[in-house]
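Q: What would this chain look like folded?
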Amino acid sequence: MAAAAAVAMLLLVTGCATLPMPEAPLENTASGMPTSPVAPPASAASSTPATDTMAATVTEPPALPPPRARLDPLQDAERSQLWERLREGFDMPDLDTELVQTWEQWYARDPAYVQRMAERGGRYLFYIVEEVEHRGLPAELALLPFIESAFNPQARSRTAASGMWQFMPDTGKDFELHQNLFRDDRRDVLASTRAALDYLERLHEMFGDWRLALAAYNWGQGNLSRAIDRNKRAGLATDYLSLSPRMPQETREYVPKLQAVENIIARPEDYGLSLPALGDEPYFLSVPIERDIDVALVARLAGMSLNEFQQLNPQLNKPMILAAGTPQVLLPYDNANRFIANYSLYKGPLATWTAWVAPRNLSAAAAARQLGITESELREMNQIPPRMLIKGGSILLVPRAADADDVAEHIADHGMLVLAPDLPPLRRTYVRAGRKGDSVAAVARRYRVNARQLAQWNGVGAGGRFKAGQRIVVMLPAARTRPARAGADIANGTAVKPTAARTTGSQAAPPSTKPARAASKRATGKPPRSAVHKSGH
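A: My prediction, written as structure tokens:
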């Protein structure tokens, strides 16, 4: 225990907030979690204890001296506030424009919003500042989550950007942010910060200017490159202010918003604002996870609410943590100590859920029968809507047997649930266009199929037309080979009598021909809707 505590102290002093593994054997053989609490810093941030009661075997950890040591106490005394440390690191040239003033006034008009945003950011700022300084980057970059998400790691935009740094799905994949059934690393505090700083460094290497790098982070590097090329062809300058008129409004305001936030943090009293006190110390540390475990159990053993736990671990999509994919969780100092002490005494099951691979295409009812659970339970846990099939190879969350192994790494990193409409098998059907031709949309309505699919089956555009008498491929359920109704040539206002639909091995009866008015009246029915996530990067 003494050796573990010494290693812990060294890690904290050097800025690495990860708990060491224990040297002694663990009482709970079901896991390899550390059992020795780590001494918290003198003024470490703590969470409000949860109200749920613990089992009799769960105890509070003892108070453990000494407080966290410092490499340079004098320097710490001079910059006891994290805000002051940030101010010392500001290194980008100031931007002084009307847009900057507009956003300064906007923030100054809502001090409660600034306060909430700063308090929320206090959980993550120390870690981000440490990473920015370690890379030798300007401290202004640590303020970007204020602009992107107001420091909300669970933020999600209309355009599917997600997380504190607002990564789009494809960009996230480019920077190794896994997005699967169990987790979305775009919301992971550590992984997304690493990816964002990697991306910003790359953009700075491409454009040689931090303002342009920031504009590209918001707008996209391709868009900025094309704007630069246009200015060059026009004989214009390619600096940020010269390119700004070519940018969309959100991007034009992006750097000014960051400058406004920087100015407010540098001189809050000039704007009638005050910032919450933030100590220059870690808010959280990393606790290793070596066995699959329920999220609720981790929160309970740590003495914190689920909401508090999710604020630091927002990447988790399911109520369980897979050790193969999430080898660590973040906990505030006090709660981490409590978790380690309580975990060493815990004797119950760690996980109540596991992953199950669908062996073939299955309905939810059939899958539930195989698993011995109710269909409603399976649908609720896996968010399976009605009339959808589970595709073979899909991963589902199901109740865990007592002797089940932990989920394998390839499932933890790549598991997906793929659903498809529960439709009868389709057969290739051949029909011919009417005497005056037919539009793709008209034939799609006639046979009650999707116009885009019909166009794809026949290698034409969704807005195209078929020539008179042209053979048309239509994929229809085996039980339905005749058209739903007679078509109408809208351009000429006369009814068209299409030929009978032909399928392999059967001949369907020709459709009845009704007056155009009757056909038009029936055409008012709409096809069923198909089930279908600020700008991101």
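The chain has 22 helices and 17 strands.
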